[in-house]
Amino acid sequence: MTKEMKEEIVRQFGGFNRLRATIGASVSGLEDGIQMNFKGSNKANILQVRYDEGRDAYNMKFFKGFKEIDDMRCIYAEDLIPIFEETTGLYLTF
């Protein structure tokens, strides 16, 4: 996965600046996606988003520490923020 593709995933969530300002997120690259570490949620504090090129969709895994909380597959771009907000209780949009 290219750097540009990883940056596009971050843009789907509103961009680096919004993520940093709203949830104190830090973003790192994975081989096939990104990992976000964030603050403020009692439910989860890590999100891994991987792109499934064959389905043109995303897979999302939420963690609290080392414990996997939820594993969602075949998520379309327009559903990334609503699922994040519903799962974590944190809001990226106003």
Describe the structure.
This protein is an alpha+beta fold. The chain has one domain (3-88). Helix content is 29%, strand content 36%. It has three helices and five strands. It has helices at residues 3-12, 16-23, 80-88, and strands at residues 26-30, 33-37, 46-52, 57-64, 67-75. It has a five-stranded antiparallel beta sheet, with helices on one face. Strand 2 (33-37) and strand 3 form a beta hairpin. It is globular and about 35 Å long. The mean pLDDT is 95.
Task: Characterize this entry briefly.
With 94 residues, the chain is an alpha+beta fold. It contains 3 helices and 5 strands, in the order ααβββββα.
Layout of secondary structure:
Elements: H1 3-12, H2 16-23, E1 26-30, E2 33-37, E3 46-52, E4 57-64, E5 67-75, H3 80-88
Antiparallel strand pairs: 1-2, 2-3, 3-4, 4-5
Number-wise, the strands total: 5
Helix content: 25-40%
How large is the radius of gyration? 12 Å
Shape: globular
> How far apart are the termini?
31 Å
Average pLDDT over all residues: 95
Features:
single chain, 94 residues, alpha+beta, five-stranded antiparallel beta sheet
